[in-house]
Amino acid sequence: MNLVLFGPPAAGKGTQAKRLVEERGMIQLSTGDMLRAARASGTELGKRVAGVMDRGELVTDEIVIALIEEQLPRTEAAGGAIFDGFPRTLAQAEALDILLQGRGSKVDKVIRLKVDDAALVKRIEGRFAAEGRPDDNPESFKVRLSAYNSQTAPLLPYYAGQGKLTEVDGMVSIEAVAAAIDKALGA
Ligand code: AMP
């Protein structure tokens, strides 16, 4: 099964993806994690995306689509992927559909974690203080939220139109969100 975990930055996608990996053995594909790894190992790609990421803007579709394409073969052996932070634009969503189709597969479900902006800002203040991620600073976070609202949220009708979208309240405890996701997945 291929699952897209959808939601604004700091909605809890990464936390829930990691739990699903532990419990179900699926593979988490986080383009944010892949890009941070590229930066940490000092690759050309890492250097190219550093400024864009730190400002909170989106990197190009071409870059993230290539990262995902590279990883798809290994997700099949594991029984599916959890897409976390991808797709973030309509072009990415369409590319993902085509890539999966070419491999005889598809996006099976999209789970949207709904969290209001005020709660996100509060969460991110805590994460910035604890982890110091450069793009969690208040300026960059504002840009990330606005990128979500203008470029990513328009994917909701795309997936709703395909009958794949389930909405989950992301304002409750991690355990309660987990239970709602399990219910949506039919487990
Ligand atoms: P994340 O950890 O998912 O919040 O991603 C951190 C940053 O990486 C984002 O603010 C973007 O700069 C970049 N990024 C991650 N995933 C994507 C994507 N699917 N499309 C464009 N940029 C992305």
The largest sheet is: 5 strands, parallel
Just name the CATH architecture: 3-Layer(aba) Sandwich
Radius of gyration: 16 Å
Low-confidence stretches: none
Q: What's the total count of β strands?
A: 5
What hetero molecules are bound to the protein chains? adenosine monophosphate
CATH class: Alpha Beta
Whole-Å distance between the termini?
13 Å
Record the strand order, biggest sheet: 2-3-1-4-5
CATH superfamily: P-loop containing nucleotide triphosphate hydrolases
| Mean residue pLDDT | 96
Gist of the model:
The chain has 187 residues and is of the alpha/beta class. It is built from nine helices and five strands, in the order βαβαααβαβαααβα. It has a five-stranded parallel sheet with strand order 2-3-1-4-5.
What features would you describe in this structure?
With 187 residues, the chain is of the alpha/beta class. It has helices at residues 13-24, 31-40, 44-55, 61-77, 90-102, 117-131, 138-152, 155-161, 174-184; strands at residues 3-6, 27-30, 81-84, 109-114, 165-169. It has a single domain, classed as P-loop containing nucleotide triphosphate hydrolases (Rossmann fold), CATH 3.40.50.300. The chain has a five-stranded parallel beta sheet with strand order 2-3-1-4-5. Helix 2 (31-40) packs across helix 3 and helix 4 (61-77) runs parallel beside helix 5 (90-102). The chain starts with a strand and ends with a helix. Adenosine monophosphate binds next to helix 2 and helix 3.
